[in-house]
Amino acid sequence: MESKPIKIEPVSFRSGPPSPREKPFNILKWLAGVFLGIVLIVLGASAWFVFTARQVVITIAPVPETLAFSGSIPAPRIGNHYLMRTGEYTLTAVKDCFFPLEHTFRVSAEKRQKLHLKMEKLPGRLMIQAHQSGVTQSNIVGAQVYIDGHEVGKTPLESIEIKPGPAKLEIRASNYQDLNTEIQVHGCGKLQEFNMALIPGWSDVTVSSVPQGAILKIDGKSFGNTPSRIQLAAGTYLMEISADLYKTWTHPLIVKPNEPLEIKDIRLQPADGKLAIQTTPVEANVMIDGTFIGQTPLVIDLSPDKNHMIRISKAGYEKATRNVNVASATSTRLHVNLKPREGIINLWLKTADTELLVNGKSLGATPKQLRLIAVEHTLEFRKKGYRSYRTRITPRVPIVSDPYHAPGRVPPRIENIPDKRKCFQKSHIHDDHHPNRLPAEVNPTQDLYHGIFTQRTGTQIQRDPEEGQTDTAVLHGDSRSDKQSVQGIYGPAPFGNVQIQTSEP
Q1: CATH architecture entry for 49-118
Q2: Other CB atoms within 10 Å distance of the CB of residue 450
Q3: For residue 121, what are the β-bridge partners?
Q4: Residues sharing a CB contact under 8 Å with residue 2, sequence separation 6 or more, in sequence order
Q5: Domain topology for 273-337
Q6: What is the structure's pLDDT at 130?
């Protein structure tokens, strides 16, 4: 390949005018100028910062090892005093054994502000166990553990975190006394061990009885047979010891903590026997060994193998006495037929076919003689065309000690009553059995007409059917007297004349 030729042309050369001479560069002056400028800028900025910043006093307890701020221009510090412009800041503090502290705060337009902060110490770690007092090798499992009133678990506790400082430790275990104590938690994550001794809250109770093999119950719960050794927590209980054919023995039991108790050879008493008492008629009064028990029918408990005096009484019946001996844990029946005590009422009526009612029950035509139990009865006489007549009367029974009322004796007679119209004169009673005895005087007065009379048991008072208002007094007995009132008998009869006599059966 052929190269193109290079053309060289001539240039005119002329020297120009001489250039001015340059001064040498002075670096020191330049640096001084720059420095002076920077200083002026800094001074200006500082002046601006000082006049626009706010003073903030920050105290942190305990004093942190490192402290940093973020969110604005670094704050100048003089002790606890900081100059900060308004705005939001985040403070971060670090110290050994304490949780890192991070706190965001805002600086307001106030000239002087304060900020107080506290760092939280790291918790401590606790290992808690419990054992019986005096027996360190036996750990108590399942005891409830409370710190400052809050349950934190059950023993044994391997490691739990608790805030540092004083704390109240409480341990509760069945059959042990509660433990309450103060502990000091060091914190800083350090492990502390507590092995607490619990005092037994129970006592050993030893029980034996005669006979052996009796059933032992505490508050109704069975604890086996005697002799027995049991553990009871402190408190008050009701202890029962029972056996077949024996009475149950009951006794309050007071158990104090950690104080053994021995109840030795409780002697059981043979069980009572039961006695069922019935009478004919019912509702009879019963006394046993001099004590009133109640009315029949009844069932009572009696001490076994012992004679008991049973007395039974009822108005209108003879008293009955029985000696009873019942066997232990057996039932015995006693039936007593009470013998009635009867009296005789002699009745005289002028009108025939009069109906008689005794205690509301009709007996038909009035008999001449009526035998009734010696209690109060209501007699009512009815006849068509006449007013009914009602009265109350109690038949009297004979007094065996009175020789004139002994069976088979003839009563004294009344003499010297010339006629019934002279019945209100004095009369004499002669005793055929005792002819030498002075006659007793009978002085019937108007009181007899009103139903008040002074005669012995068995006296009869008659309303004479022929003479109307004439009364006759006939005395059965001696001259001794007692006063008695019978109401409604001796007034004028509503129909005819009525004679009522009560005498011995």
Answers
A1: Sandwich (2.60)
A2: 12
A3: 98
A4: none
A5: Immunoglobulin-like (2.60.40)
A6: 92
